[in-house]
TrEMBL record:
It comes from Methylosinus sporium. InterPro entries: Epimerase_deHydtase (IPR001509), Lipid_A_modif_metabolic_enz (IPR050177), NAD(P)-bd_dom_sf (IPR036291). Residues 3-230 form the NAD-dependent epimerase/dehydratase domain. This is NAD(P)-dependent oxidoreductase. It comes from the Bacteria. Signal peptide: none annotated.
Amino acid sequence: MRVFLTGGSGFLGAEATRLLVEAGHECAVLLRGDIEATRLAPLAARLHAIRGDLFAPESYREALTNFAPDALLHSGWRGVAGAERNDLGQLDNIVATGRLAAAAADAGARVLIGVGSQAEYGLLSGRVAEDAATEPTTLYGVAKLAAGRALLAIAAERGLRAVWGRVFSLYGPGEARLWLVPSLIRAFAAGRSPDLTPCEQIWEFTHVCDAAAALLALLDHEAHGVFNIGSGEPTPLRDAVLLLRDLTAPGVAPGFGRTPYRPDQIMHLEADISRICAATGWRPREPLARGFAETVEWFRSGGGEKIVNHVL
C-alpha cells in the first residue's frame, strides 16, 4: 500500500513510519526540512521525502498527486507543547486537516486516518469509551475534536473509509524532554528530587510502539470511525513515579505533595480500548515496567539529547 504521512518525523509518526516500512508499505512523508535532521534519518533511503508545509496545501499538492497514495496517515499538528494548548493558532490545524484530507482524496486515497487525543474528552473521570461526551477544556482539545469531525465528514461525503484514533498519554524512547516521563528521568538521573503533586491520580501510560501498531491495525482492517488508543491498564501515578525512580536513581526521594493539584485536575482517566480490540484484534504488548526500563536506558545512552521540539 502507498501511504502518505504527515507528522512522520514526530514521536508517534516516526514509529508508525518505521512499522509501515518494515511491513512493506511504500511511504511518502511530508517534511519542512532535511530528513537527515529528523527521527526518520535511519529510514531515509526507504522513504519518499516530500518538501512542503502542512499549512500551505499548494506546497505539497503536486507531489501528493504524483505519489498517488492509497491511504493518508495524518499525525502532523502545530502546538503540541503544554504552553501552546490554548494558543489561537490551534484553530489553524482544523483547516489544515480538512484541506489535507480533501487533497489526499483528490490524489486517490481511499483511506483517511488521523491522530486525535484524549484531550477531546475534557474533564471526564473514569473509564472513557468513544461514545462518551466530548467537552474539551483547551483549544488543543477543541481543535483535535473539530479536525477529527472534519476528516470523517470529508471522507463520508466522498465515500471513503476514515478513522480518527484518540491517543492516550504516550511515552517511550524518542519522547521529547519536556514531557512527564523524560522530565522525571532527567531529574532522578541528576540526583534531584522533583516537585510533584501528591500523585494520587490514576493515569494511562501508552507505549509509543503500541500506539503505532494500533494505527497500522486500523489501516489494515476495515475499521471506520473513532477509536481510543491506550494501554488499557491504568496505573496509579505515584506507583509510576516510584518505578521510574527505582530504575533511574533508587536513592532519590520524589517530592510528593510539594505542588498542589490544579483546579481542573483529572484524578482518573482510563481508555476503554474494547472497540479497537474487537475491530482489529490489536492488543497492547508493552508492559509498563519493561517500557519504562527501555525509556530510561534510551535517555541514559544520550538519545534525549538528539530530540528537539518542533512543528510535527
